[in-house]
Structure to design on (304 residues):
C-alpha cells in the first residue's frame, strides 16, 4: 500500500467537503435571483482566496507552494473548474437546490469511468454497481420533465446546464488527481480560484449590481465555504482513488435536500423522490465493497 493510500481518510474528507460545499450552494441559492451569475462567481472565488492562503501558510507553503513546473496542466484544470463553477451556479438558479446537486452526481460517475481510461485506476464490481444505480437515479429525475407536452423550459435549461457542469467537473477532478502527484493541493485550489475570479470579472460588461449588507454576507460566505470545501476535497483525492471516492459523493445530497425543505420552503417533485432511493442504494452497494479488492478489473476488462 502506498503511503498516500488511506481510503478511510480520503472518504471522510470527501464527506466533510460535501458539507462545506452545501453551505456554499445554499449561500449562492439565496442570492441567485438578485445577483448576476458572473458577480456571484467572482465573489465566491475572491473570498475563497483567504482560506487558501491560510492553508498554505499553515503548511509553510506560502508563497513558495504556488510554484509549479506544470503551468499548462494547472491552466487546463483551472479552466475546466471555472466553467463547471459557472454551470453549477446557473443550474442552482433554475432548479431546486437538491435537484441541481443530484444532477451533479453524474460527475463522479463520469470521473470514475474516466479514471479507468486516463489514470489506469481500477473499477471493482461494487463500484460499478454503485455508479449504475447513481446514474439511473439521475435519469429517473430528468425523464418525467422530458415526457411532458409542455415542459418547463427554465427547468430543462437547468438540467442541460447541470449536465454540462457535471461533465466539466469530471474533467477538472481527473486533472486534480493527476496534479496531486506532483503539485501542492493548495496551489491547485489557488489557481482554480484565480481562474474563476478572472472569469467572473470578465462578465462586468454584462452588468453587476451593488449588493446590500445581507446579500454581501451571503456572497462572502459562499467564498469561505467554497474555499475550505475545495481544499478538503483536493486532499481527499490525495488519499484515495477517484473511483473509490465517487460513490460517496451521493452523501452530499442530504444537506441541500434539508435546505430546500427548511430554508427555501420548496416542494420536492415526485421524480426526485423516486430518484433518491436509487442513489442511496448505490451508496450502500459501494460501501459494501470488500477491502481485499475482490472482483477488480483492469483497463481491458479482464480480472486482475
Amino acid at each position: 500500500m502506498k503511503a498516500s493510500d488511506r481510503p478511510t481518510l480520503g472518504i471522510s474528507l470527501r464527506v466533510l467537503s460535501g458539507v462545506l460545499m452545501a453551505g456554499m450552494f445554499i449561500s449562492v441559492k439565496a442570492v441567485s435571483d438578485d445577483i448576476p451569475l458572473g458577480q456571484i462567481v467572482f465573489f465566491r472565488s475572491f473570498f475563497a482566496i483567504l482560506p487558501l492562503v491560510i492553508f498554505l501558510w499553515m503548511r509553510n507553503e506560502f508563497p513558495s507552494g504556488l510554484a509549479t513546473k506544470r503551468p499548462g496542466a494547472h491552466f487546463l484544470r483551472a479552466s475546466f473548474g471555472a466553467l463547471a463553477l459557472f454551470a453549477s451556479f446557473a443550474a442552482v438558479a433554475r432548479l431546486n437546490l437538491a435537484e441541481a446537486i443530484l444532477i451533479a452526481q453524474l460527475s463522479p460517475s463520469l470521473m470514475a469511468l474516466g479514471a479507468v481510461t486516463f489514470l489506469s485506476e481500477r473499477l471493482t464490481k461494487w463500484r460499478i454497481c454503485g455508479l449504475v444505480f447513481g446514474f439511473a437515479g439521475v435519469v429517473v429525475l430528468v425523464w418525467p420533465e422530458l415526457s411532458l407536452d409542455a415542459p418547463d423550459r427554465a427547468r430543462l435549461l437547468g438540467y442541460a446546464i447541470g449536465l454540462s457542469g457535471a461533465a466539466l467537473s469530471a474533467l477538472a477532478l481527473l486533472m486534480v488527481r493527476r496534479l496531486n502527484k506532483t503539485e501542492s493541493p493548495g496551489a491547485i485550489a489557488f489557481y482554480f480560484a484565480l481562474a474563476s475570479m478572472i472569469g467572473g470579472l470578465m462578465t462586468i460588461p454584462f452588468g453587476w449590481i451593488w449588493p446590500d449588507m445581507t446579500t454581501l454576507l451571503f456572497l462572502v460566505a459562499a467564498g469561505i465555504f467554497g474555499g475550505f470545501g475545495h481544499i478538503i476535497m483536493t486532499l481527499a483525492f490525495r488519499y484515495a482513488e477517484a473511483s473509490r471516492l465517487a460513490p460517496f459523493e451521493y452523501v452530499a445530497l442530504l444537506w441541500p435536500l434539508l435546505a430546500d425543505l427548511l430554508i427555501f420552503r420548496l416542494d420536492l417533485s415526485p421524480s426526485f423522490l423516486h430518484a433518491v432511493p436509487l442513489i442511496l442504494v448505490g451508496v450502500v452497494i459501494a460501501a459494501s465493497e470488500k477491502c481485499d479488492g475482490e472482483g477488480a478489473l483492469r483497463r481491458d476488462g479482464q480480472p486482475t
User: Anything to note?
Assistant: The chain has one domain: 7-287. The mean pLDDT is 82.
